[in-house]
Structure formats: C-alpha cells, structure tokens
Amino acid sequence: MRIIKRFSKTSFGQKLIGFLFYLITKISFLSIRWKYFNEDQKYNIFNVDNQYIFCCWHNRLFLGPHLLPRNRIINALQSSHSDGMITSIAFKYLGMNVILGSSMNGGMQAFRKMIKCIQNGESIAITPDGPKGPKETVKEGIIKLAQITGTPIVPLVWTTKKFKLINSWDHFVIPFPFSKGVYTFGKPIYVDKKINKKKFEISRLEVENEIKRLTKLINNESN
Predict the structure, then answer these.
(1) What is the CATH T-level fold of the domain 2-222, as seen in this structure?
(2) Got the DSSP string for 71-106?
(3) Is 182 helix (H, G, I), strand (E, B) or coil?
(4) Alpha-carbon torsion (157, 26, 78, 92), positive or negative
(5) Of 188, 183, 187, which is closest to residue 215 (Cα–Cα)?
(6) What is the pLDDT of residue 104?
(7) Hey, which residues does 75 pair with through a beta bridge?
(8) CB neighbours of 124 closer than 8 A, spacing ≥ 6?
(9) Cα separation, 151 vs 115, whole angstroms
(10) Coil, strand, or helix at residue 138?
(11) Model confidence over 137-163: pLDDT tens digits?
C-alpha cells in the first residue's frame, strides 16, 4: 500500500494512474444506458455555446466530466494534491483544460485564472464541496466567481440504478457498468454583483438546495 501511495506521488505514476482512471471511467460511461431526466425541459446546454460555471458534487466526479457538453472550452478546477493531479490527467484526455489550486494552496491564483478564462469566453467546471468537504455543502468560491463575472451556475447531477459507495469523506460513487443511468442539468442560476452578506448566503443556499433537489428527483426516477 505504501509503495502504491509513493508511486502515485511521482510524475510517471500520476500520468499512468490518470490514464487508467480515464480509461475505466470512459468504458463505464459508454456501457451505461443513459436517459436525460426530462427531455421536454432539456435546456440549451448542449445546443448553445454559452459560458457557464458547471458544478457537481465531489462524490460524482467519476462520471460527471463525461456528461459535460463538448461544444465549448471547459476549464476544470482541481487540487494540486496527488489525487487532484491524477484526476487532472483524466480531464485532459477528455479534452478539458485544468486549473490547479485550492483554498489551501494557490487558491487566489486559481481564482484569477478562472476569471480570465471566463473573460476569454470559456466555461468552468467546479466541485463546490471539494476537495475535502464538508460533503454536499457549497463553498463561497463558486458564488464569488459567479458574482464577479456575471456567469450563471449550472448544476449537473447524475445517478445509476446500481452503484457502490466508497468509504471516503464524501461517500464517492462508483457506478456499476451496464447499469441504467439518469442525469440532468439545472436551470442557470445567476448571482447579482451588488449583494450584501445576507443575500450572498441566500445565493449560496440556492445553489446547494438546487443540487440536492435535482439529486432527489433523479434518484426517485432511477428507482
């Protein structure tokens, strides 16, 4: 176990494990029979090249990136920790750009990079409760980014009929191949530029509650 942990911290190890992670998630994604939650209310997420701040819970990272639209440049925020570096390799195989940083290391620099990407007409992908939680609690960073840039937040949720929960802080979800899957995007959520602390918290809770609401809906649909 120590050898594997040491190996995952090397550049070669991260590249190899990252590629294998991409391969496994890709095969799993392709094997699942996907259904969009409500085709009649499917928004122009895939048809219009608008800028968005996409978000999904950290425990849905296994397949979340595979469900993002490919008709735009998407920059994924990832931790510079070894686990984050491995995930970053997988993201790059998916054609996504990666911005490294977290609240613990390089957060401000990463935040400025995200603003610049949005100014260049690109989109962002964030796990709003990552990289260490608390589980399913939206942090302030994504709200500040939406507030400063005027870019709407779009929640992404997915589930499969059969899956396994890993014993981690976020109960990471590993879907079973060849299962049935349901996914959906939420309506774009805008954050006003000029708001006080109370309204800022209201916006934060709006995003958090919307992801939870959508998760409950698709969980009921998949059962």
Answers:
(1) Glycerol-3-phosphate (1)-acyltransferase (3.40.1130)
(2) SS-EEEEE-SSHHHHHHHHHHHHTT-EEEE-BTTTB
(3) strand
(4) negative
(5) 183
(6) 62
(7) 97, 124
(8) 52, 53, 54, 74, 75, 76, 77, 114, 117, 118, 145, 151
(9) 10
(10) coil
(11) 999 999 999 999 999 999 999 999 999
Containing 148, the helix (H) or strand (E) segment is helix 140-149
**What angle do helix axes 197-222 and 140-149 make, rounded to 10 degrees?**
110
Q: Which residues have a Cβ under 8 Å from the Cβ of 221 and sit 6 or more positions away?
A: 37, 182
Rounded CA-CA distance 136/154 in Å is 16
Q: Is 137 helix (H, G, I), strand (E, B) or coil?
A: coil
Place of tokens 């968005």: 52
Got the DSSP string for 30-82?
HHSEEEES-GGG--TTTTS----EEE--GGGTTTGGGGS-SSS-EEEEE-SSH
Residue-wise pLDDT for 47-106, tens only, equals: 777 899 999 999 999 999 999 998 899 999 988 776 778 889 999 999 999 998 876 666
Q: Over the range 20-57, which residues count as b (16 or more CB within 10 Å of their CB) and which as e?
A: ebbeebeebbeebeeeebeeeeeeebeeeeebbbbbbb
What is the pTM assigned to this prediction? 0.92
Domain range annotation of the chain? 2-222
- Using left for φ > 0, alpha for ψ between -120 and 50, and beta otherwise, residue 95 falls in left
